[in-house]
Amino acid sequence: MKVALQSFLAGTTELERFLDSSAKEAALLSLLLPEERRGQMEREERALLDHLAGAVTDRRRYIYAVAIVSLYGLLERYIDGLIADYIERFSSLVPSFGDMPEAIRKNHFDLSIELARLAADDRYRLDLRKEEIIMNLHGCLSGAVPFQLNSAAFAIHRGNVNLQRIGDFLSRLGVAPHLPKVFRACTMQTYLRSRDPDRDYSRISDSDLEAVLQPIDDLVARRNEVSHGVVNVDNLESIDLLHERCRFVAAYGTSLHEVLMQEVIERQIGLPDATALGRALKVFNRTIVCFKHSQCRIKVGDILVARTGDPIMPFRFAPIDSIQIDGENRDEITLTEDTQFAMKTSLRASESFEYVVLPAADAA
């Protein structure tokens, strides 16, 4: 899951670099166009400059088309990979297929049969063979240990990945409701408040959430127009708006990761390698969290999890950036008696939360 998110965010960052370069090219062209600058050029240079100046609309259309198609492609690949990774991650935390969430167990058979049908169709390119899919399904139904789910089956789709379809994917996993969970995710809340700090998002009703997250469906509609060769000049977005679209999609994708991690963390905190710390003694600036504990082993890079009490998004989580005892930085602490220590993290801590530490290796 973490790798899928990192790859997705790297893609959106690369796309923003392309937009930055395109903006600089346009700025350079505008500096060269005044007559006093053109007069200092050779005839061939002026001819090339005039040609570029005459193709401004074509260049805007190209930049827009590349941005829209690329951004949608990044989102679709990410959704497919994230869902498959989530199933693989969750299945690694349980001993048998029967311990998987009910929704996954319920949907696995029909979706596996559909995946096997697609694998047998030459029009579809799948990494799995039909025989392998059936073998995995049989292992799950027969109670084999270890077991292997057909994780790719849960992201089967025909047509574009819009809000409705993403919600359907999550429902197959037993993760709902889609829009309220994404909206309440820390990343989405941070993004929305940075865009409109004066708006009171606590008053947004569930019925209005589709409008708040509408840029996803708008991206899908624009991608379809571009793919069908319909690029209306009057409908082109500026580079600044395309930048903002990239940031929104990145926030949405990161929030989806947070939503699915809620389910993973719920399982992880009950495992033997989780360390319960209880409530903090003190929290400073929502980033420094102080505890007293007598028996634990914690190192920088482990994941600090906070139980928020929020039924929609019950956990916050972030890596531990640093640990101190008596003002001295420690890479790792192993406690065998009552000791006070402090940890720095980015999860927006509160003294009202209950805390658990998960090993860094569990932060998939």
UniProtKB/TrEMBL annotation:
InterPro entries in the record: HEPN_RiboL-PSP
Domain of life, source organism: Bacteria
Domain called RiboL-PSP-HEPN: residue spans: 51-261
A Pfam family recorded for this sequence: HEPN_RiboL-PSP
Descriptive protein name: RiboL-PSP-HEPN domain-containing protein
